[in-house]
Amino acid sequence: MSSRSQTERKKRPLPRPSYPGLPQEDPEPAVIPGPTRRTGNSRNGPSRYDTPPQRRASRPSPKEEYEDNPEREEENRPARAGTMRRPRFTIFGALLFVLLMPFRFIGSLTRNIRWFICWPLRILLGCCFVGIVIGAILVFLYGAISNRYDISEVKSNIPERTVILDRKNRTIGTLHGENRKRVSLQEVPPVFIDALLLREDNRFYDHGGVDWIGVGRAFAQVLKHKRATQGASTLTMQLAKITYNHRERNLHSKLTEVALAKRIEATYTKDEILETYINRIFWGHTFLGIAAAARGYYDKEPRDLSLAECATLAGIIYGPNDFSPIKHPEEAKKVRDIVLGLLKNEGKITEVQYQAALAEPIATRTPQSRSEENYAMGLVRRELDAILEEEDIRLGGLVVHTTLDLDLQNATLDAINKHMDALEARKDFKKHLASLQARREKRGILKNKLTTKAEYEASLAAWKALPAEQKEKTQPPMPNYIQSAAVVMDNATGALLAVVGGRDAEESKLNRAIQ
């Protein structure tokens, strides 16, 4: 009996392994092994030495087991070639997913449309999306670049000439700064403002710093003529360019000007922008601003300009050196007539005014040259350079009140020249001059022979009459005539009223009164 039990136990089949996903047979109940010692009394009944009865262990089905313990399912599941793996997260993958999402959305929107409409529509929508993305990046980038600029410089950083006044508030001269004088819009004729806007930016009061209609028109001209024939810069963009001195003409500078124009429009009103523009713009030669241009071309204040003169100044802004009414009157007349035509077509002037302005010749009247070189101005300049900061000197725009008296200054200079001319006209002056020359030669001074002022002026006129080739080979004569100096002071206060350091400050800058 014992041997048969052992044989049967050896022939018992082994339990079949289970694989997830495969059909399984009901498993045999698990057998819990116990003592295997048996006795001969097993026929008569159980004994305490007999093998205890086998107990069935309750085992959950494979399905229940894997539902309760999914980790075990993953561990027991065999790896197979070609099976899908969970994708790993990467920044590049996430960025690519975000970028491709709009194109997938466009594809899902157009999947039910016929192919000959679907693909052009997809291309169009895709290009629009790409343009929006690029535009957003440019707005963010150049917005950050424009924030580096100090927008207050648009109105504050406008260098002017420093004006020197005498004790009666009369102008002695100007120095430092630039050839500019600020004026308000109320000091400029309204017809000039109309001409300027029609010539440079006819939608100035309608756009926000950038005229997108003008940009499209300029782009169309580029496509038509294969080159830039029309600008798209507004007055605000031009103001940004000249304020921050953008001399380069490339895409980066243009986009920076667009961003700056947006900031300027958000900071200042239209009238403030226009007023700053007409005071900053270059009008040719050394004229900066409408006041300097009116003074330099016509010797007038801006409020006194005629219709033809306003049209001329508005027309030459595009190329002040090429259309200068002084150097190129024919070209200036062409642009003036164009501006007059624009004014008439827009109803700003009548036909009678138009014809009268057309008949007016291009005539300029430059102001009489008044030398800034005089001994009083040289003294004031030296004092200001010693007490002013470098920034104040650069910007100028100061009004300096002095104790000098312009009448006494001119009278003192006239008195010196009159006395010296009379001295040189004496018969014994030549003898005295020869004696002085001999003393100089004894000291080894052989150059620049002493002469009278009349002889110097005659020799200077002869040198100026020489041809240009001979002028380059010879030096102009030196002013080696007898000099004089004078100082006039107020005895009661010690104030300096006049200072003359020589007979002519242009010919000899040495101030003999203080040096």
What's the quick description here?
The chain has about 525 residues and is mainly α. Helices cover about 50% and strands about 5% of the residues.
Describe the overall structure:
- The protein has helices spanning 2-11, 62-68, 70-76, 91-109, 115-146, 153-156, 190-200, 212-225, 235-243, 251-267, 270-280, 290-298, 307-315, 329-345, 351-359, 375-387, 390-395, 406-424, 429-442, 453-464, 468-473, and strands spanning 30-31, 56-57, 162-165, 171-175, 399-401, 486-489, 496-500.
- It has 515 residues and is mostly helical.
- Among the domains are: 2-13 and 30-73, no CATH class; 179-359, Biosynthetic peptidoglycan transglycosylase-like (Penicillin binding protein transpeptidase fold, Orthogonal Bundle); 403-500, no CATH class.
- β6 and β7 (496-500) form a beta hairpin.
- The chain starts with a helix and ends in a 15-residue tail after the last strand.
- Mean pLDDT is 79; it is low at 36-43.
Number of helices: 21
Question: Any idea of the CATH topology of the domain at 179-359?
Answer: Penicillin binding protein transpeptidase fold
Mean pLDDT metric: 79
**CATH architectural grouping of the domain at 179-359:** Orthogonal Bundle
CATH top level of the domain at 179-359?
Mainly Alpha
- Residues in helix, %: 40-55%
| Major β-sheet profile | 3 strands, mixed
Q: Give, in order, the helices and strands.
A: HEEHHHHHEEHHHHHHHHHHHEHHHHEE
Order of the strands making up the biggest sheet: 4-3-5
Structural class: mainly alpha
Q: What is the CATH superfamily classification of the domain at 179-359?
A: Biosynthetic peptidoglycan transglycosylase-like
- Low-confidence blocks of residues: 36-43
| Shape verdict | elongated
Q: Please indicate the percent range of residues in DSSP E strands (runs of 2 or more).
A: under 5%
Number of strands: 7
Evaluate the radius of gyration: 49 Å
Distance between the termini: 147 Å
